[in-house]
TrEMBL record:
Native organism: Tothia fuscella
Protein name: Mannosyltransferase
Organism placement in taxonomy: Eukaryota, Fungi, Dikarya, Ascomycota, Pezizomycotina
UniProt family annotation: Belongs to the glycosyltransferase 22 family.
Predominant subcellular localization, coarse grouping: endoplasmic reticulum
Reaction(s) catalysed (UniProt annotation): an alpha-D-Man-(1->2)-alpha-D-Man-(1->2)-alpha-D-Man-(1->3)-[alpha-D-Man-(1->2)-alpha-D-Man-(1->3)-alpha-D-Man-(1->6)]-beta-D-Man-(1->4)-beta-D-GlcNAc-(1->4)-alpha-D-GlcNAc-diphospho-di-trans,poly-cis-dolichol + a di-trans,poly-cis-dolichyl beta-D-mannosyl phosphate = an alpha-D-Man-(1->2)-alpha-D-Man-(1->2)-alpha-D-Man-(1->3)-[alpha-D-Man-(1->2)-alpha-D-Man-(1->3)-[alpha-D-Man-(1->6)]-alpha-D-Man-(1->6)]-beta-D-Man-(1->4)-beta-D-GlcNAc-(1->4)-alpha-D-GlcNAc-diphospho-di-trans,poly-cis-dolichol + a di-trans,poly-cis-dolichyl phosphate + H(+)
EC number: 2.4.1.-
GO cellular component: endoplasmic reticulum membrane
Pathway assignment: Protein modification; protein glycosylation
Localisation: Endoplasmic reticulum membrane
GO biological process, one term: protein N-linked glycosylation
Any Pfam family: Glyco_transf_22
UniProt-listed PANTHER family: DOL-P-MAN:MAN(7)GLCNAC(2)-PP-DOL ALPHA-1,6-MANNOSYLTRANSFERASE, GLYCOSYLTRANSFERASE
């Protein structure tokens, strides 16, 4: 018998392992991670607050299309400060890791609390199967520590689902737990994600249908009002201060901009069935979960009623939210613990009967095999996802390059780099070293000015030819570019790219070398030359300013410097030492 603590450790270890192996952030996470950095680094003052925020805070220069809430950043900053670890951390990267670990552990605690409710209502075996199935999924574990607004909401909705599980398994006090469920989901919707209003609606409808009309006035309306008032009292004062707009309710602004004005479709549209045909299978990952276990729990008489009480409001939320044309898996992530719990109920039904017949022994073995392959698929996705952060990897490579430099280093960071891992946390190299100073200027007229580039020691850019001045490319960062079918006689990946990965010092490069050997053996002896291969392409370049004078034959003072290949009819000249010169006619 595996002890309960082992399942707890499994959940914690996997979340922290994913964080350790993929420690950088992407653009969707940037607001909260930058806001947390600014609060931790500069604090908060109410004296001349407008000028203070304008001087120090990143969101003033990069506000985005709509204001977003600072509540999550305030929470992370407070817990990070209270932890007492800040002074002991040598680098900004370590502090960023701590901040993300706190969010990851918060979501882990929510999942463990949900597990405990399952154990109380359905037994220890169901609770353990929930952990195994949940941990073997990729998205929840990988994103648990990522500072998306959805992941702050996820913790609250998971606590809410805990109360909902108790409401359907402890009927004597179900009204109290229904109240907690609706109040928490409403609060999360008001503060973090407005789409949760639809989940409040479907949960309320199911409670009203199953409990009766009296629940409307005794539970549903009071819980909704409580969640709304507490949410507004949290978000409006905090966000009005940080955005210097009084009063401000960010989630209302987002809802109005994206839903009422219809701007969400600018980010892409998907067919009505996307959540059911694509997102849910990817999120649940294990095909037995939605192909066997959930149906089994719904159609088995002893588990049907309680399983339906979990599944129906959650899938109704997904169905109603499918009416919006812009769809992303993270908009429905909140239903995954609930659906996984029903999978665990089905898994328990099979597992408890494994000694009774050959069929149940076979299904139990199939269940274990499916979990193994789900873990395998998750770690393959992790390996691929690690290649989506060239900006973060560029900073790590630059740390090795500049480890002996003792002065402040000015670095220009282009849009791709800033969206794929470069954050203000990484400006702090080491407590004993001068800082990096990042510049993320996007204004085209400024970028066309030669004097703008004079202050930079290094440039991180996708397009070296757009850099004005004398710089040399000293490193190239490779990244994920998709999959492709390799036919007999074709090379799956250029050898120099594999070598470049290995030489970065990243262990992933070494693993890729091992994988490449496995791939060659399989193609030679099993698949007759056919294979599905990774595509790895150059994504970012690290440029260093050259201190030498002008090259022979090139007159700097007479030449017209031009920004961008599309803006001039001249030519690019590459110096003997790799420097990039851009000249117009």
């Amino acid at each position: 018998m595996v002890p309960e603590s082992a399942f707890t450790l499994l959940l914690l270890i996997v979340i922290l392992l994913y964080l350790r192996l993929a420690p950088y952030t992407k653009v969707e996470e940037s607001f909260n991670i930058q806001a947390t950095h600014d609060i931790l680094s500069y604090g908060v003052t109410f004296n001349d607050s407008k000028n203070f925020l304008t001087t120090h805070y990143d969101h003033i220069d990069f506000p985005g299309s709509v204001p977003r809430t600072f509540v999550g950043a305030v929470f992370l900053s407070a817990i990070t400060t209270l932890s007492g670890f800040i002074a002991a951390l040598p680098t900004g990267a370590a502090l960023q890791f701590l901040v993300r670990a706190i969010l990851g552990l918060t979501n882990a605690f929510a999942l463990l609390s949900f597990r405990n409710a399952l154990q109380r209502g359905f037994g220890k075996t169901t609770a353990n199967w929930f952990i195994v199935l949940q941990v073997s999924q990729f998205h929840v574990m990988y994103y648990a520590s990522r500072t998306l607004p959805n992941m702050f909401a996820f913790a609250i909705t998971t606590f809410a689902l805990r109360s909902y599980i108790l409401a359907i398994t402890v009927p004597l006090i179900s009204s109290r737990f229904h109240w907690k469920t609706l109040a928490l989901v409403t609060y999360a919707g008001v503060v973090f994600r407005s789409e949760l209003a639809v989940l409040v609606l479907t949960l309320s409808a199911y409670i009203l249908f199953t409990v009766g009309r009296y629940s409307l006035t005794k539970t549903i309306i009071p819980a909704g009002i409580t969640g709304l008032v507490l949410g507004l009292l949290t978000t409006v004062p905090i966000d009005s201060f940080f955005w210097q707009q009084y009063p401000l309710w960010p989630e209302w602004s987002s809802f109005y901009y994206n839903t009422i004005l219809g701007n969400s479709s600018n980010w892409g549209v998907s067919p009505w069935h996307f959540y059911f045909s694509n997102a849910l299978p990817r999120l649940l990952l294990n095909p037995l979960s939605y192909g066997l276990l959930i149906p089994l729990a719904l159609f088995t008489p002893s588990t049907r009623q309680r399983s339906a009480a979990i599944v129906l409001p959650l899938l109704s939320f997904v169905a109603l939210y499918s009416a919006l044309s812009h769809k992303e898996w993270r908009f429905i992530l909140y239903v995954i613990p609930g659906l996984t719990s029903v999978s665990a109920i089905g898994a328990t039904w099979i597992w408890n009967r494994r000694a009774k017949s050959v069929l149940y022994r076979f299904l139990s073995a199939l269940l274990l095999i499916s979990v193994f392959f789900s873990f395998l698929a998750s770690f393959i996705q992790l390996s691929v996802s690690r290649l989506n952060y060239p900006g973060g990897q560029a900073i790590i490579n630059l740390l090795h390059t500049t480890q002996n430099e003792t002065c402040t280093i000015n670095i220009y960071v282009d849009n791709l780099a800033s969206q794929t891992g470069v954050t203000r946390f990484l400006e702090n190299r080491h407590s004993t070293d001068p800082k990096y100073v990042f510049d993320k200027t996007e204004d085209i007229s400024t970028l066309h000015t030669p004097e703008f580039w004079d202050k930079f020691d290094y440039v991180l850019t996708q397009h070296p030819e757009t850099t004005i001045g004398k710089f040399e490319v000293i490193d190239t960062i490779y990244g994920w570019a998709g999959l492709r079918v390799v036919r007999p006689g074709e090379e799956p990946m250029k050898e120099e790219m594999l070598q470049a990965l290995a030489l970065t010092g990243d262990r992933f490069g070494n693993w890729m070398m091992v994988y490449e050997g496995f791939e060659r053996n399989m193609r030679d002896h099993v698949t007759r030359g056919w294979w599905i291969s990774f595509r790895i392409e150059p994504r970012l370049n690290i440029l260093r300013r050259q201190n030498t004078g002008p090259q022979e034959g090139v007159d700097e003072e007479e030449g017209d410097w031009v920004f961008g290949e599309e803006d001039f009819d001249g030519e690019f000249e590459k110096g003997y030492d790799g420097s990039i010169w851009v000249r117009g006619e």
